[in-house]
Design brief:
Blueprint lengths: L4 E2 L2 E2 L3 H8 L1 H12 L1 H18 L3 H32 L7 H36 L4 H58 L1
Antiparallel strand pairs: 1-2
Length: about 190
Amino acid sequence: MVKPTVNGEKSSSHFIAHVTSYPAVADSLDAIENNPYGKKGIELATEGYNKVVAPVVPYAQRPYGYVAPYVQKADELADGGLTRVDNTFPIVKQDTEKIKGTILDLAFMPLRMANQGKDYLLSTYSNEYKKCGGNGYIAGGKAVITTGLVVTSDSLSWLAEYLNQKKEEGKEFAMEKKDAAKEKKDAAKEKAGK
């Protein structure tokens, strides 16, 4: 893993340390450092810093003293934002390969779902075609109609199951809120009676 350095010096920024602690970022930095073009870019940037910025840094120390608290506060806020990102999207702390796999799974999910739907329809049609006698246009027409009915029936049963599950969750949520409101009301009455 890459150590968080800025222009060859150890960074005091919590934000930079936090960002470079992510495996995907650390792996990307390693890849850049190990790539000949990346190395050349880093060398050019370091050379530019040493020739242009480093000579001016001593003159900027006094003005930087005035803005240092604001820079530190911005660093703290940015680090806090990354902590929120960590809590909201815990995958950023996962290994790079796992992140790639998850992204690919999500990217190809519509294709997988379409293939599963196609397979379901074709197998249902095939079963219905066999049940209808198997040959000719009339059997094919009957199979199309019965396939539509079977698919509709399956879809409606799935929807009913889903809605019943949500209905039960809603009842539990409503009971919790009702109990909490009753407790709050009782506490308010008790407090008013004192």
